[in-house]
Amino acid sequence: MKFRLYLFGKSFTIITDHHSMCWLANLKDPSGRLARWALRLQEYDITISYKSEEKHQDADSLYRNPIEDGTMSEEIGALSTILNLVQEQRKDSEISTTIQSCQESKKSNRSDLQVIDGALYKRNFDPSGKRWLPVIPKHLRLDIFRHFHDAPTAGHLGFIKTYDRLRKRFYWPGLYRSVRNYVMHCKECQRRKPIPQKPPGHLMPMPAVEAPFHRIGVDLLGRFPKSLGGKKWIIVCTDYLTRYAITKSLPSPDAPKVSKCLVEEIIFKHGAPRTIITDRGQVFQSKLIFEINRLCNIDHRMTTAYHPQTNGLTERFNKTSADMLSMYVDVEQRNWDQILTFVTFAYNTARQETTELTPFYLLHGREAETTLDTIFPYSPDGATQDYLKRLLNQTEDRDS
């Protein structure tokens, strides 16, 4: 009730083209939802007046404004403008001066800066990123923000995840502050993301699992507007160890399609899980799902009725993916299935606050390469590292 402080205790009239509202206060024996609505309105001195839609154009025009097209952009400016980093750095007077100073004197005043193949790089002391980070000139930073925050593969995620993507790949003075300002002033994030609420109390997490995909959460998300491909639902699978998510669009949420997805996307690719957590939906209680669990020796656990928090990891991903999809769907909302793979990739390559690593890294032992990573492939220490040895060490650190 946003207007309560203005209307409470005053007599006022509501003019509407919704004719049924005129009879709400005059119902003799209201029940259920109608009774609750009528009871809520009794504290106001209100008169409801009907006005036909043809004569209600003054109010109709306010909520019938044209909707901005939120579809995906086909071109990414960053790719076309920073293909030649050397030339772009020369356009920035401050960087150009620094490059000239480093080239003239063999011993630079700053040991953390180095000119490599004509481009200026800064040493990165964070072991999770590249050893040398390219210094980005001012006129290219906006394009990089658009690629790592606005693009469908970035998903309009928050400040922490966006900053983590950038600090591992690029450097410029004031990176932390500039990323924070850009995300805080993003118009799409302000328009579509609600203010998060604090949990009601301390939560009791589930016991840790030993390996990826030993425990997964599965849920059906929908019903969505019918896409151009005839899809209406999304099946979601989340791994409770790495937080890795797998999604697939479905035309209908029937048992054969859900079972096929579980077998092809989970069991054949990641092995049979030891535990599956789902809600009490009719699909998950079908005989086909029961037989798959029996044949694979899977412990199927169902959440408490009307308490989806039991499968909290999956439910939270549903909220995050729905927010990301809303950033890129068109006005008719029929292209959401084409965007689904992009936003899932954005989630899996974003740093999680609980693990402080990305789900992709925890599952594969390496970070995912983006299109900009292929433009800046330079990493002097990457070719000499033993990948298998590094992967074993990372696995031991993760399990310890």
In short:
This protein is α/β, with parallel strands linked by helices and 400 residues long.
Write structural notes for this entry.
There is one protein chain. This protein has about 400 residues and is an alpha/beta fold. The protein folds into three domains: about 5-60, no CATH class; about 75-190, Endonuclease III, domain 1, CATH 1.10.340; about 215-365, Ribonuclease H-like superfamily/Ribonuclease H (Nucleotidyltransferase, domain 5), CATH 3.30.420. The protein has 17 helices and ten strands. The protein has helices spanning about 5, 30-40, 55-65, 75-80, 85-90, 95-105, 140-150, 160-165, 175-185, 185-190, 255-270, 285-295, 310-325, 335-350, 360-365, 370-375, 385-400; strands at about 10-15, 45-50, 115, 120-125, 130-135, 215-220, 235-240, 245-250, 275-280, 300. The strands form three sheets. The protein has a five-stranded mixed sheet, sandwiched between helices. A hairpin with a 2-residue loop joins strand 3 (about 115) and strand 4. Helix 8 (about 160-165) packs antiparallel against helix 9 (about 175-185) and helix 13 (about 310-325) crosses helix 14. The longest helix has 16 residues, at about 255-270. The radius of gyration is 27 Å and the shape is globular. Residues about 70-80 and about 380-385 have low confidence and may be disordered. InterPro entries: DNA/RNA_pol_sf, Integrase_cat-core, Integrase_H2C2, Retrovirus_Pol_polyprotein, RNaseH-like_sf, RNaseH_sf, RT_RNaseH. GO terms for molecular function: endonuclease activity; hydrolase activity; nucleic acid binding; RNA-directed DNA polymerase activity. Its EC number is 2.7.7.49. Keywords: Endonuclease, Hydrolase, Nuclease, Nucleotidyltransferase, RNA-directed DNA polymerase, Transferase. Pfam families: Integrase_H2C2, RT_RNaseH, rve.
